[in-house]
Amino acid sequence: MLMIGHRGAMGCAPENTLLSIHKAIELGADWVEIDVHCVADKLLVIHDETVDRTTNGRGKLIDYSFEELRALDAGLGQRIPILQEVLEVTVGKVGLNIELKGLGTGKVLTSLLKKTPETYKNKMLVSSFLMPELEQVVRLNQHVKIGVLAGNNINESIAWATKLKAFSIHLRLQKVTPKWVDRAHDLGLKVYVYTVNKVVQIRRMKELGVDGVFSDYPNRLTS
Ligand code: G3P
Ligand code: MG
C-alpha cells in the first residue's frame, strides 16, 4: 500500500510548502499530494481560496498579485511554492499528486505538461473534485494519470472515473467499505483513501486491500 504525504507532511511541517515536501520525503512517503490554485497563469501551491489560514496575510487569492502572494509567509519563513519548484524537489525522488483546486487549473497544468518529459509524468497523478478541470486535462493531454476525488456520492464519482478513463478513485475515509473497494477494483481503478492519520485506521485500510492512503503523518505506515 502506497503512503501519500498529505499536503507534503502537514502533520509535521507547514502544509503545501517545500519544507513540508522535503519532510514527507525524509519520512519515507512514496508520493506527496499538493493542492494548486491558478494565479496569473501560474499554479500556486495552496489549499484554500483565501490566505488567512496558512499564511500571515488576509483575504482572497484573487485580490492579490502573484508577487504579493509570493511575499507572504506560509509558515516558518516558507513562501507559497509554485508547481515548478515542487517538481524540482520531487522529481526522481517521490511521486507527485497534484490536486486541482481552483478554476482554470486544468488548462494551465496542461500547458506545463506539454513541456514536461514523459519520464516525469510516469510519477505524476492529477486529481480533483472538479470534473471540468479533469476533463480539460484529459482532453488536451493523454499521458498523465487521472484521479477522481469522491465526496459523498461515490456512484457518481465512479461514473466520472469510468468516463475519464481515470487511473484511481480517491475515497473519504468515512465512506470506505469493502463493497466500494471491490467495485472500484473490478472496474480497474486504484483506490486511494484520504485522510488517514491514526495507525489503527492505516492498518484497517491495508487489510481492506486499499492501494494507498493520504496521511498528514507519512511515517505512520508500519508493516
Ligand atoms: O487529495 C486528497 C485530499 O487532499 C482531498 O481533500 O481538502 O485535503 O484537499 P483536501
Ligand atoms: Mg488536497
UniProtKB/TrEMBL annotation:
<dbReference type="Pfam" id="PF03009">
    <property type="entry name" value="GDPD"/>
</dbReference>
<dbReference type="InterPro" id="IPR030395">
    <property type="entry name" value="GP_PDE_dom"/>
</dbReference>
<dbReference type="GO" id="GO:0006629">
    <property type="term" value="P:lipid metabolic process"/>
</dbReference>
<dbReference type="GO" id="GO:0008889">
    <property type="term" value="F:glycerophosphodiester phosphodiesterase activity"/>
</dbReference>
<feature type="domain" description="GP-PDE">
    <location>
        <begin position="1"/>
        <end position="223"/>
    </location>
</feature>
<protein>
    <submittedName>
        <fullName>Glycerophosphoryl diester phosphodiesterase</fullName>
        <ecNumber>3.1.4.46</ecNumber>
    </submittedName>
</protein>
<dbReference type="InterPro" id="IPR017946">
    <property type="entry name" value="PLC-like_Pdiesterase_TIM-brl"/>
</dbReference>
<keyword id="KW-0378">Hydrolase</keyword>
